[in-house]
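Q: My labmate handed me this sequence with no annotations at all. I'd like to see what the chain might look like in three dimensions before we decide whether it's worth expressing. Could you predict it?
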Amino acid sequence: MKRVTYWPQAYLGLAINCGVVLGWAAIKESLDTAVIIPLYTGATSICWALVYDIIYAHQDKEDDIKVGVKSTALLFGDMTKCISALGTACISSLALSAYNADLDCMVLLSFPDSSSCTISMAYVCGLIKPLRLQQEVCALALNIMLF
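A: Here is what I predict for the chain of 147 residues:
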């Protein structure tokens, strides 16, 4: 995909996270689009894959330039920190899916749980804000974010 588009991470998210739809259908024995669409497109798929893989892609920028492939790291360059918005969209879509699923806990939306959403968004943005886009620093941020 990197030879075709600057957005290979979006394709990765769509391909890898098909299990969200299958898992929901297997457990609930239905496909509730009000839950599946925000969950698949935002929380687990496109947005989250873009957040972590754009940071990871900065480690490969020099090699991508040498071999002539595209990536969002090359596309965004120093503007990469705008992915905080994708992190916020990820958490917001997770909250929307929980709300649409009528979960008892009203995950991330009702008081006092609304603080969970705020804390999660602050955490993701807090990881991205101080990020320096050098290779070794990106690897450290990615490890902190995922583990």
